[in-house]
Design a protein that fits this description.
The structure holds 2 protein chains of 2 kinds. By secondary structure, chain A is mostly beta strands. Chain A is built from no helices and 11 strands. In chain A, strands 2, 4, 5, 6, 9, 10 and 11 form a 7-stranded mixed sheet that branches. Chain A is globular. The mean pLDDT of chain A is 89. Chain B is an all-beta fold. The chains are: A mainly beta, B mainly beta.
Chain lengths: 115, 115
């Protein structure tokens, strides 16, 4: 019973291609996130979705677009892939609210390699 | 805006020795603080969290952390290191806006345990 799952685990592709990474959570959380972890292990939040609405959109190129068909899924679509997009992408989910601790639960990650 | 610093990108200890990983934060509101661990090729797993209930927080795998407001610190310790503790450790603070939806992660500290 994986709480937060991502597919694929590994993704190798050529520059210029379009790819998607899927994420699903079965924790009933109302907020989901995408993070990018670079080669130095630095974690940067990219997006979050709360009840199908984009709440946070950091300074991420518009080639990246999150898509959420329902609150259990948040997919990440990337257009025109570039070498610099190579990284590990993590999906996470959490319960957000004024009294919530907002503990986040992470998926296993998707290692994207752009050639 | 909040920030998190972790002193020492790499810490090495001998098996059985004390583990001390440092975390300092800045926040304009009472913080909620977290430590996550990332084992090689895996996602992030919550070790422990501070939510103002007690300043000394116990987590999984024998780790604990102490919140010190005067020092704006939340250092992670373990009395006796085990080989299986070798991993990347991240300190994080809950965001101040949007009901704390945004997490801010520190840059991480890689812990090596020597036999």
């Amino acid at each position: 019973d994986t709480a937060v799952s991502q597919t694929p685990k590994y993704l190798v592709t050529q520059m210029g291609n379009d790819k998607s990474i899927k994420c699903e959570q079965n924790l009933g959380h109302d907020t989901m996130y995408w993070y990018k972890q670079d080669s130095k292990k630095f974690l940067k939040i990219m997006f979050s979705y709360n009840n199908k609405e984009l709440i946070i959109n950091e300074t991420v190129p518009n080639r990246f677009s999150p898509k959420s068909p329902d609150k259990a899924h948040l997919n990440l679509h990337i257009n025109s892939l570039e070498l610099g997009d190579s990284a590990v992408y993590f999906c996470a989910s959490g319960e957000v609210g004024f009294d919530s601790y907002n503990e986040q639960f992470f998926g296993p990650g998707t290692r994207l390699t752009v050639l | 805006a909040q920030s998190v610093t972790q002193l020492g990108s790499h810490v090495s200890v001998s098996e059985g020795a004390l583990v001390l990983l440092r975390c300092n934060y800045s926040s304009s509101v009472p913080p909620y603080l977290f430590w996550y661990v990332q084992y090689p090729n895996q996602g992030l797993q919550l070790l422990l969290k501070y939510t103002s209930a007690a300043t000394l927080v116990k987590g999984i795998n024998g780790f604990e952390a102490e919140f010190k407001k005067s020092e704006t610190s939340f250092h992670l310790t373990k009395p006796s290191a085990h080989m299986s503790d070798a991993a990347e450790y991240f300190c994080a603070v809950r965001g101040e806006d949007n009901y704390g939806q945004n997490f801010v992660f520190g840059p991480g500290t890689r812990l090596s345990v020597l036999p």
